[in-house]
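Hi F.,

I've been meaning to write this up properly since the lab meeting, where we talked about keeping a consistent format for the predictions we share between groups. The idea is simple: the sequence comes first, exactly as it goes in, then the C-alpha cells exactly as they come out, then a line or two of notes. No screenshots and no reformatting. I'm using this chain as the first example so we have something concrete to point to.
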Amino acid sequence: MKKAVKPKKTKASEALLQKQVAALIAENLGLKRSVKFLTEQRDYFKNQLFAVRTRDRIASGPEQLNYDLFGEDIAPQIEEAPTEKITYQRKKRKPSQERTTLPDHLERRVEVIELTGDDCNCTHCGTTLEKFGEDVTEELEIIPAKVIVRRIVRCKYKCPKDTIHGVFRAPTVNRIVPKGIAGPSLLNHILISKYIDHQPLERISKSIARTGVKISKSTMSDWMKKLSQLLNPLLEELKNKALNSRILNCDETTLLVTNNSISKAKINGYLWSYIGDKKWVWFNWQAGRGRAGPLEILQDFTGEYLQSDGYQVYKSMQKQLGYKNIGCWAHARRKFVEAHDADYPQAKVAVALIAKLYKVEKECREQNLSADEIFERRQKESLPVLAEIKAYLDKEVITALPKSAMGKAVYYALNQWDTLQRYCEDGELNIDNNIVERAIRPVALGRKNWLFAGSPEGAEWAAGFYSLIETAKLHGLEPSQYLDQVIKALPDYADGEGMHSLLPDAYAAQINSENPPEPL
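Output, unedited:
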C-alpha cells in the first residue's frame, strides 16, 4: 500500500497562505466593525423610542478624570473599603420648590365659617365661647371664560333748523377686522391658544363653541391673516433690531407645509431663528434648508459674531459676509453623551472636561460678573481645560472609527475646534447656542399638536407671531399680556408710522416706569 505523499512546502505556497490569512483577518476586522456600527445604530434608535434620556445623568466630576491623555487608564486600583454610617447636610430647597403661594393680585372671595347654635357653648362648662383668632385656608378656583358682545353705537345728529345741512355722525372706531365680529381680546385668545398653548384651530373652534358661539376654522384663519398683515411693519422693525446686533445666534427647525394648490402637496420647509444680542428674536420661514434663504437674510447683518451649530451653511458664508463663526459646546457634548450610550466609556472623559467649562460659566452667572471679568476668568480657567480637551481629541482620533458614535463625536469637535474655542475671545459671547434652542422649542411643541401649516403664507404668519412671543419672553414680559396691548393699539398704527413704540422693549420700559423697582 502506497503512503500518501505530502505536498511540498514552497515559498510561493507559504506566501499565498499568509496572504489569505491576512485577507481573512482584515475581513474579520471589517465585519466586527460593521457589527459594532449596526449595534450602535440599533441601540440609538431604541433609546430614542423607549429609553429614559441619560444626557444629564452621566457622572462628570473629578472622579471621572483618572485618565491618561497619552496612554491607558491610570486610575489606581482601590480595594473596596468597609462601609460606615455618616451624616450630611442637605441644601435648602429653592423657593420654586416650596409649596405654591397664590399671587396677591388675585381676587379673594372670603367665606367665613362660624359656630352656630349649641356649638357656641363650651362642651365642658356650657359657657359661651369667645372668638380669639382664625384658621385661614386658601383654595384656587377658576371661573370659565365669559364671552360678551361689545356693541359700538355711533350716534347720528342733524341740524334742527334745516335737514338739508346733512347728517353728522360720531367718529368711527378703528378695528382690525372692519366688517368682522372679532374684537381685540378674541383675536388675542386665538393667537395665544395656537402659538403659545399649541392648539390647532379646529380645537380652538370647538372650545369657543362651548360658549354658544360658532366660529369656523377658516374664519379664524382669515382673521390671523389680517392680523399678520397689520403686524408686518412691527416685524420689520424687529428684524432690523436683530440684524443690527453685534452678536447673532442662529438655528433652524423643520416646519411642514401642505398646499393642495400646487403639484407638490407637501413642502419640507424650515423655520430659521435669528436672535440678536440675546433679546431680539426674528423667525423666517424658507421652503428648504439651503444657503439661499439665510444668505438673503444675513446680507443685512452688520454685526461681528454669528453663533450656530456645526451646519456647514453658516461656515460657508463666513468669508463672504465677514462675520466670525462661534461653535456650540452643547452640540459637541451631546455627541459624546450619545457615544457613551453606545458603549464607549472613554466618552465620559470628554463629558467631564466639558463640565469643567460649564462650571466656569455657572460661577460667572452666579457672581454676576461683567463682560471684562468673564473674559479674564475664561482666560485663566477655561483655556487650560480647552487644551486638555484638544489633547484628548488628538489621542482619540487615532483609533476612533469615523462612522462610529465615538468617531462622529471626535471628528465633530475637531472640525469645529476653531469655532468652539472662540467664545473665550469676548466676555459677551455664549459658550453654547442654547438661547436659540429655547426659542425654537415652542415651535417643536406646537408642531406635535397642529402638525403642519396649511400654506407657505400660513407658515410666514407663524414665523411672525413666534417672533413677537419669544422676544417678549426675553424682555421679561408675559406674552399674552403684551400681545393683548399690541392688538388693541394696532388699528391706530395702520400706516406703519411709530411702530417702534409697540416693540417689547418700549412696553417693558412703560411697565417699569409705572411700577418702578423698590430701592435696595
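Notes:
The beta strands are 156-158, 167-169, 247-258, 266-276, 280-286, 305-307, 324-326.
Residues 11-49 form the longest helix (39 residues).

If this format works for you, I'll send the rest the same way.

G.
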